[in-house]
Amino acid sequence: MYTLNIDALNGTDRDIQQENWRSRRMVLAKEKVGFSLHETTLYAGTTNEFWYANHVEAVYCVGGKGTLTDLETGEKYTITDGFLYMLDGQEKHRVEVEEEIRVVCVFNPPVTGREVHDENGVYPLILEDENA
């Protein structure tokens, strides 16, 4: 059994902080369960563009308010507590944050925690060493 209190991640290499957001990675590829699980906070007043070309991501909002835009179709959705979106077609998307947003994100394949968004907002596909 794996257990964790999210506050134990504060200040560790699983606590990724950027100018517009913070992501605490609770489950990573090294746990070898086939997905990764993160709690991400998107800061109020920010605009964030992402494109997970190598991953499927499901995002469940547990607080806040903003607008999700599918950059391929132009469709817009209101993000509020209880809203879920899944990027099962690796859609390029934008999140405009009206009130600080907290989301729980699941990635498949799982991220390792070493990924960094490139200039297009893409995480590279990094696989864990099976022997690690």
From TrEMBL:
Q: Which SUPFAM superfamilies match?
A: RmlC-like cupins (SSF51182)
Keywords of the record, alphabetical order, are: Lyase
InterPro entries xref list: Ectoine_synth, RmlC-like_jellyroll, RmlC_Cupin_sf
Pathway this chain belongs to: Amine and polyamine biosynthesis; ectoine biosynthesis; L-ectoine from L-aspartate 4-semialdehyde: step 3/3
Gene3D superfamilies from the UniProt entry: Jelly Rolls
Question: GO annotations under biological process?
Answer: ectoine biosynthetic process
Signal sequence annotation? none
Zinc among the record's keywords? Answer: no
Q: What is its EC number?
A: 4.2.1.108
What name does this protein carry? L-ectoine synthase
Source organism of the structure: Nesterenkonia aurantiaca
* Taxonomic classification: Bacteria, Bacillati, Actinomycetota, Actinomycetes, Micrococcales
Q: Which gene encodes it?
A: ectC
